[in-house]
Amino acid sequence: MLQDPKRYTITAALPYTNGPIHIGHLAGVYVPSDIYARYLRLQGRDVAFICGSDEHGVAISMKAKKEGITPQQVIDKYHHIIKTSFEDFGISFDNYSRTSAQIHHDTASEFFKKLYNEGKFIEEVTEQLYDAQADQFLADRFVTGTCPKCGNEGAYGDQCENCGTSLNATDLINPKSTITGTTPVLKSTKHWFLPLDQYDAFLREWILKGHEKDWKPNVYGQVKSWLEDGLKPRAVTRDLDWGIPVPVEGAEGKVLYVWFDAPIGYISSTKEWAQREGKDWEPYWKSNDTKLVHFIGKDNIVFHCVIFPAMLKAEGSYIMPDNVPANEFLNLEGNKLSTSKNWAVWLHEYLQDFPGQQDVLRYSLTATAPETKDNDFTWKDFQARNNNELVAIFGNFINRVVVLTNKYYNGEVPAPNAFSEIDEATLTEMRAYPAVIAGSIERYRFREALSELMNLARLGNKYLADEEPWKMIKENPERVKTQMYVALLIATALAVLSEPFLPFTAAKLKSILKLEGDFGWNDINTSADLIKAGHVIGEAELLFAKIEDETIQKQVEKLEATKTANKAANKAVVPQKDLIQFDDFAKMDIRTGTIIEAEKMPKANKLLVLKVDTGIDVRTIVSGIAESFSPEEVVGKRVTVLVNLAPRALRGVESQGMILMTQNAEGKLVFLNPDTDGVGNGEVIS
């Protein structure tokens, strides 16, 4: 671990521009990285907080084909949505770039050419799947087939999403092209590979020995597993028409593999920032007194801890990351977040439903962050954290302090008298919080850091509750001046220390307290008078608003609607039966009718005994619908009846026909009934 670095380069995983940003992305990568960057800036550190859109690769091509637009239109659409979402939620990147930018194309091409010229790649001719009808090689995601491990018939050419096994497209049983639906053939093609096995000793020394103590167990364990399985050469080019062209002769129609080009996006984004700010970019990537930290999700651990470091080592002039504090996955209401299934809380939609409440989501996601294991976001927990913590603890303390200061002193900060032992103890505890919270942040324990911030608010609430200035004002108004001064110091400390976690709240609180100038992190424990006597604060404003049950219920219903839609979309269609002749159909006499009586069949959970007016007669029909409908529900229902079905005795009752029904996406029985007025009982359906 680098001690006292001169500068920090902080990278956040480049979001893929085939869809918007959801809460899983925010919790896993962008809120923790933003907390870290904001904290370091408050410490007066030199920080480059870098990110950008990942805009190449096969998923973009697939999205473009699906939507009938060009890849450029796809990335332009989602780059704008993603960038705006980050801005709306206060993710304070120093630069947010995109891999379609010319500076990135140039940087990635130069990186490849240097390794190519120095003989760091292996050139091989391999056989890959080729779609003869489409006249193109098939990238992994353009191939589906049966997984050789679990038998899942919908596995992709790079991974089976059923069992999680990593695959090669050629491993699939009965592969099919997703472009034309035809069976691909094997065809020879030339590609360049990075021999990862040659960097095995370096990676073992650097990570397994060098970072055993300071890297998170989930990260360290995954890297160790990869190394123990044995590293193999990995292709850095592929046959595709979307991406950065391979910059060497004989590579026509080939692009840089997205896993190779994307992490170089951190470097090109840093270059872009440095050019704009008039800085030299190289120290941020090549100086040994720079601390490089990658914030990612667990699905990117291998790329940032094995592959990208091997690339940097091969190039020779770059530093290695000091830490890669990857988070696990966040689930939503017990189910895995999924862009394709729309099982997510999208940031742009959240702000439509909760305008001005960015910090509530930032708080909730930090408090439940999947730092060492997968965790679950629920709307009920979100509501509870807002109402019971932000409103009842943080907001309540600030409101009492501001209201009482305005009530007693017309908003003017009172001059304190002698401090009591309780005052001194409270202020000593307050001044300890910057170091306590910093210690957690420095170890990437953001949940713990947030908890300590709330403990500071609890300290303020306890102090007011114990001291009761609203009672003391009648007995000893001079004592109240000191009490309110102490409370205002705690409020000021909260305004500074909350900024990494709750930037919008911190700004609002500073506005209420009329705090001007730049407060540093350590001003809390070094400045004698954070807020001076005679300073005039503003009127009270609520920092947080209570969230009602009805608001949360709407979000739950929104997710339930998504679940229903997914079931409908994924419901297997029953195959068509064997062909029949018209005469076969004509033998069936199907008529409209009305249920006029209904009762449960004794000792039978599934059966109802119905009296049905068929227009011909009133007859008894036994129907297996009792688990879906009560007798009271079906009386008066218009129904469709097969009237010439041969009678059949069921539990001693003769059933004279069949009610026709189907099922909806949730498996619930639904009557097939005439929905037009004026259709009487007995009408023939033909």
SS content category: alpha+beta
Tell me the fraction of residues in β-strands, as a range: 15-25%
Alpha plus pi helix count: 21
Largest sheet: 6 strands, antiparallel
The global form is: flat
Q: How far is it from the N-terminal to the C-terminal residue, by CA?
A: 80 Å
Total E-strand runs: 26
Poorly predicted regions: none
Mean pLDDT across residues: 92
How much helicity do the residues have? 40-55%
Rg for CA atoms? 33 Å
Secondary structure elements and their pairing?
Elements: E1 7-12, H1 23-42, E2 47-53, H2 58-67, H3 71-88, E3 95-98, H4 102-117, E4 122-131, E5 136-137, E6 143-146, E7 155-156, E8 173-177, E9 185-194, H5 200-209, H6 217-229, E10 234-235, E11 237-239, E12 254-256, H7 258-277, H8 283-286, E13 290-295, H9 301-315, E14 330-332, E15 335-336, H10 347-353, H11 358-367, E16 375-377, H12 379-409, H13 421-442, H14 446-467, H15 469-475, H16 477-497, H17 503-513, H18 523-526, H19 549-570, H20 582-586, E17 590-600, E18 608-613, E19 618-623, H21 631-634, E20 638-642, E21 648-650, E22 653-655, E23 658-659, E24 661-663, E25 669-671, E26 684-685
Parallel strand pairs: 1-2, 1-13, 2-3, 14-16
Antiparallel strand pairs: 4-5, 4-9, 6-7, 6-8, 9-10, 11-12, 14-15, 17-18, 17-20, 17-26, 18-19, 20-23, 21-22, 24-25
Helix pairs in contact: 2-3, 4-7, 5-6, 6-9, 7-9, 11-12, 12-14, 12-16, 13-14, 13-16, 14-16, 15-16, 16-17
Describe this structure in words.
It is flat, with a radius of gyration of 33 Å. It is α+β, with helices and mostly antiparallel strands and 686 residues long. Helix 12 crosses helix 16 and helix 14 runs antiparallel to helix 16.
